[in-house]
Specification:
This protein is of the alpha+beta class. The protein contains 16 helices and 19 strands.
Length: 538
């Protein structure tokens, strides 16, 4: 009898081979089922409640995936691709999860029959290469046309991104707003220069865009109301200084033998503060913004001199003001002079709904803007913000990669037809595998039909017929429960979304297929004695 070799600690689970692969694919299927119904203009929303009882209502694939507490290691890869799609292009997060899940579903019978995963992976990579070539060949490049035409294209792409969101009724209103916001930025199109502020109450149509910086009125002390609330040709001092009288620290000890001595200590402290305030006033600033608190003495002092101040401004808002208005954030009052002040044409404090906002417009480097969203409930506003984020990302991508394809399942149907035609020209196992991947691509139009309550089989048959006749832009028409030329209907998406989604989905599927063994170590310190022998197979 062979002596037993101690390899793994007792309690270690090892599972390997075909059953492991099938189990991983099944785990991914259940994740896909969680987001399947959120795809498209008629997609449903999900209500996710976390451990603290906070509810989130969303139909953004990446948001849902982030909030699901997934422990299965293979299924986590789907969460990663949704996150990467969100970070890279901003939209198409549900599509990418659906595609990865459907690739695995169509490949599963081959795995069960014993086809080696490496052969499947090779076929998938081949199919992906063909798809990307086809997209690049079909994509319609929007030449750098006139400003009006480019703007129209961007609005159509933003409207397509919003058609599946909660705010699809107002997509015309918001697509103009999103395009305005992105076009206000400089060449690099930095996302953090678009501020989004939410004010509950009012209707969505009352949302507005401000070409400059706006933030909520900060915590204020007595004397604040006496300060002027608007300026022309405003000079802004940006500080990181506390302008407040400090109570003596508990561990500080000052020994004095008479009241006069104590008075000197107090006077010295006040004098330090007054010196700082005087230096700020001498610099010529009319508006003082500080990241740290500005106390009641300072507030009153500024009010007497017709200056406006706001303490405890959040770092993000201070940075945007700095980039928009110029100047520098000072950490000492000694060096404050005209050179380090920011400049803008107008400053105003305005009431918006139940909140008061400090608004800076006409900034010298005005490469920033702020969207102020209105709406009924907090959850509704949060979902609106997520929807706008997707639309903003799409517009940025379209400016950088100005080629578009038709949405609504049109491009997927065309790729599916192309792969089917290709699979008939080759022999061997690859033929079956590539035709399975072709079938998997049909999940997008099929799911769009299912979510809208249409007869998916009937509509897909019509689409297959149209694509076979060479009408490459035909996709699902949600409004008429029929098929339509989606390029004519202006359902446009940047081709980069589709390329990214297919690449990510294919890579995730290949990664899951290439895993044939899971080794799960027991938690260290679980009280078990160190064991002998192999862990039991699952």
């Amino acid at each position: 009898m062979q002596p037993q070799i101690v390899v793994l600690k007792e309690g270690t689970d090892t599972s390997q081979g075909k059953p492991q692969l099938i189990s991983n694919i099944n785990a991914c299927q259940s994740i896909v089922d969680a987001v399947r119904t959120t795809l498209g203009p008629r997609g449903m929303d999900k209500l996710i409640v976390n451990g603290q009882g906070k509810a989130t209502i969303s139909n953004d694939g990446a948001t849902i995936m982030k909030l699901l507490d997934i422990i299965h290691p293979a299924a986590k890869t789907l969460v990663d691709i949704a996150k990467s799609q969100d970070a890279e292009v901003g939209d198409g997060t549900t599509s990418v999860v659906l595609l990865a899940g459907e690739f695995l579903k169509q490949i599963k019978p081959f795995v069960e029959e014993g086809v080696h995963p490496r052969i499947i992976i090779k076929a998938m990579r081949k199919a992906l290469t063909l798809c990307i070539e086809k997209i690049n060949q079909m994509a319609v490049r929007i030449e750098k046309r006139s400003k009006e035409e480019q703007r129209e294209l961007l609005e159509k792409c933003a409207a397509t991104a919003m058609s599946s969101k909660l705010i699809h009724q107002q997509k015309d209103f918001f697509s103009k707003m999103v395009v305005d916001a992105v076009l206000a930025l400089d060449e690099m199109l930095p996302l953090n220069m678009i501020g989004i502020k939410k004010v509950t109450g009012g209707s969505l149509e009352e949302s507005q865009i401000i070409s400059g910086v706006a933030f909520k009125k900060t915590f204020s002390y007595a004397g604040f109301e006496m300060q002027p609330k608007s300026y022309k040709n405003c000079k802004i001092a940006l500080l990181n200084i506390e302008l407040e009288l400090k109570a003596e620290r508990d561990n500080a000890e000052v020994r004095v033998d008479n009241v006069k001595e104590y008075q000197k200590v107090v006077d010295a402290e006040w004098q330090i503060l007054y010196n700082k305030l005087q230096k700020i006033a001498d610099s010529g600033a009319n508006v003082v913004l500080s990241k740290l608190p500005i106390g009641d003495v300072a507030t009153q002092w500024f009010a007497d001199r017709d200056m406006f101040c706001a303490g405890r401004v959040s770092e993000e808002d201070l940075k945007r003001t700095l980039k928009a208005c110029g100047g520098a954030v000072m950490t000492t009052a000694n060096d404050i002079g005209p050179k380090v002040l920011g400049l803008c044409d107008t400053f105003e404090e305005k009431q918006i709904g139940g909140e008061r906002f400090n608004i800076f417009e006409g900034c010298i480097n005005a490469k920033t803007c702020t969207l102020i969203l209105r709406g009924g409930s907090e959850q509704f506003l949060e979902e609106t913000e997520r929807s706008l984020h997707d639309a903003i990302m799409i517009v940025r991508r379209t400016i950088k990669n100005d080629s578009v394809v038709a949405g609504g399942g049109a491009i997927e149907m065309e790729l599916s037809k192309m792969l089917r035609d290709y699979s008939r020209t080759i022999a061997g196992k690859e033929q079956l595998l590539i035709s399975a991947i072709a079938k998997a691509l049909e999940i997008i139009p099929r799911q769009l039909c299912d979510n809208a309550g249409f007869d998916a089989t009937n509509i897909l048959n019509k689409l297959r017929q149209k694509h076979a006749q060479g009408s490459c832009w035909y996709g699902v028409d949600i409004m008429k429960e029929h098929i339509a030329d989606n390029f004519e209907a202006c359902v446009w998406e940047p081709s980069i979304i589709k390329i990214n989604a297919l690449t990510a989905a294919c890579e995730a599927a290949c990664m899951i297929l290439s895993v044939d063994e899971t080794i799960k170590s027991p938690k260290s310190g679980d009280g078990k004695p160190p064991g002998r022998g192999m862990g039991r197979p699952m």
